[in-house]
Design goal:
Blueprint (H helix, E strand, L loop, with lengths): L27 H12 L8 E5 L1 E3 L2 E5 L6 E5 L15 E11 L1 H26 L5 H20 L4 E10 L6 E6 L4 E6 L4
Antiparallel strand pairs: 1-8, 2-3, 3-4, 5-6, 6-7, 7-8
Helix pairs in contact: 2-3
């Protein structure tokens, strides 16, 4: 876990301190709050879904799922430097989540569509002998092949660090995955 930082001056707090060594702010409450927030991920990452956050210039708009308030967070806040997170109510965790890149999505689509179309046309026209049945067979095969191909690709996945952001209006924890270039709101999968 990343070291906690002082809310007032943004200095990293040393382990087992009662006050910030730079400005004298009481540190125990800050440390307890940040550690509790970082330990208790509100979402199981293994069954989570990602929703891309809107980016305008160098800021992300993070909409709270409880109160629908837009929290504007600069892309510089997603860094290990506490000064860049000043006043953002953002806490780093030691967790990360894999995210597919656009290149891997395109390659997995092609590598799944070509064999699905070929096998679908064979099964539909030769085995079943039903006109246009190949389209249904190909669609079913594509939906089976794509997740398998995507998981077997040796490239195209990057791990984004997980951050917890506290909503400025209601105080609810919002789980984010971001490297500063792009941000995703990590949401609970409704099927699980």
């Amino acid at each position: 876990m990343k070291l906690p930082y002082c809310i007032k001056c943004q200095t990293e707090l040393r382990p087992n301190v009662k006050f910030c060594h730079r400005c004298g702010t009481e540190a125990e409450a800050v440390i307890a709050t940040q550690e509790a927030m970082a330990k208790e991920l509100p979402i199981d990452l293994s069954s989570a879904i990602l929703e891309k956050c809107e980016r305008q210039r160098s800021e992300f708009s993070i909409v709270c799922h409880s109160c629908q308030e837009a929290n504007i967070i600069p892309s510089l806040a997603f860094t290990d430097v506490p000064v860049d997170r000043s006043g953002m109510r953002i806490v780093a965790t030691d967790k990360s989540i894999p995210v597919s890149t656009k290149a891997s999505d395109r390659v997995s689509w092609v590598l799944s569509a070509v064999p699905a179309a070929y096998l679908g046309s064979y099964v539909g026209s030769v085995v079943l002998r039903i006109p246009f049945a190949w389209t249904i067979v190909a669609a079913v095969l594509f939906s089976i092949f794509r997740p398998v191909v995507r998981s077997l690709l040796p490239f195209g996945h990057k791990r984004l660090p997980i951050w917890l952001v506290q909503c400025k209006k209601c105080g609810e924890k919002i789980t984010l995955a971001s490297d500063g270039c792009e941000a995703f709101k990590v949401k609970k999968n409704s099927k699980s």
